[in-house]
Design goal:
The protein is of the alpha/beta class and 350 residues long. The protein contains 15 helices and five strands. The chain has a five-stranded mixed sheet.
Length: 350
């Protein structure tokens, strides 16, 4: 006779097979008394516990103790991950992580004494980024159509980079996700095309097969530069060789800016107002703390809200011009008063 329970448990603990004939050799005494003795033996009772723990591990005391410990650890790690996520969202350095943990401790938040260095902040942020990239990758894989939004930038090291966003639709909801930012060796269409392909296929980014991606590609949104929208050698031309159904979309804000400049480029009033007046006022007050403080006093003396001259142009183009004109119009009495005082002081000095 053999005991299936003891045989199963002995695979995990061979000590149960020692002096237990019901495991290997088998019991040759076919008597009820032999079975009763084995049923109450310490080896058999231990084997029952092992088999039960294997079949339902969540009910064992050890598992419950580990879950209790893991729950406490997970709560602490969850708070630390949230801190790292905030650093990434608000573009803060990893060195802020240490004193933010200390600040949480003073608020009574239990964070433990481990994982509280800037090196661990890098590790946590790395895994947060991996999870977000996997979400974007799954979103693209499940989408029927994809549009690429692209624009170039230059970082503080004067390195040309290209940013890529992917636009999809799920259940009637339009989603725009960040795909990646890649260094561009040359500012030509081929280099940008290779950067886009690397951002899509690289295991460090989306890890999506290029053929699968181009089969879903229906649009490209970008500025009107020849390197992007050139009919022969632009990025859109290279992508159309792989996806002929691709539709290019010139950035509407860029088109508005170009159309506005074409409409006013022959106007002398525009040149005098924008180039001479607004830019002159902006740099006059921006480069002189004394002039800026005296202008604020002028606003206070007249009982008006402070409207400092702002920069014309920038990334929002027409929006920046509108803001500069609005501030100049609202602050005209105070600006005029201060400039008259400056002229009077200059005449007295000369």
């Amino acid at each position: 006779m053999f005991c299936e329970i003891c045989q199963s448990a002995s695979q995990l603990d061979r000590s149960l097979a020692q002096k237990n004939v019901f495991v290997d050799a088998g019991c040759t005494s076919l008597r009820l008394e032999s079975i009763k003795i084995h049923e109450t033996s310490s080896n058999h009772l231990k084997a029952i516990t092992i088999v039960a723990a294997k079949s339902e591990p969540e009910k064992t005391p050890a598992f419950k103790m580990i879950c209790s410990l893991n729950k406490d650890t997970l709560e602490k790690l969850s708070k630390l991950f949230r801190t790292c996520h905030a650093l990434a969202v608000y573009n803060r350095p990893y060195t802020d992580y240490t004193w933010l943990c200390e600040l949480d401790e003073t608020k009574g938040v239990n964070l433990g004494k481990t994982y509280r260095t800037a090196e661990y902040a890098k590790v946590f942020t790395h895994y947060i980024a991996n999870v977000e990239r996997n979400k974007v990758s799954d979103q693209i894989r499940n989408a029927l159509f994809v549009t690429v939004l692209s624009d170039g930038s230059t970082d503080s090291s004067i390195t040309e980079q290209e940013m890529f966003f992917l636009r999809t639709c799920r259940g009637g909801e339009v989603l725009v996700s960040f795909a990646g930012i890649k260094k561009v060796e040359k500012g030509n269409a081929e280099a940008i095309h290779n950067s886009l392909k690397s951002a899509v296929t690289s295991s460090d980014y989306l890890a999506i097969p290029w053929n699968n991606f181009t089969s879903k590609l229906v649009g490209l949104g970008c500025d009107g530069a020849a390197v992007m929208l050139g009919r022969r050698n632009g990025l859109v031309a290279l992508l159309k060789r792989e996806q002929p159904a691709l539709i290019e979309v010139h950035c509407f804000a860029h088109r508005l800016e170009l159309g506005f400049k074409d409409a006013v480029k022959k106007s002398n009033l525009y040149e005098k107002t924008v180039v001479t007046l607004l830019m002159g006022l902006y740099y006059f007050y921006r480069n002189s703390p004394l002039n800026r403080s005296m202008l604020k006093r002028s606003f206070t003396a007249l009982g008006n809200k402070v409207y400092l001259p702002t920069r014309v142009g920038g990334t929002r183009w027409v929006g920046h011009l509108l803001r500069a004109l609005t501030n100049f119009q609202n602050g005209y009495p105070s600006i005029l008063q201060h400039l008259q005082q400056v002229c009077t002081c200059f005449e007295c000095f000369t």
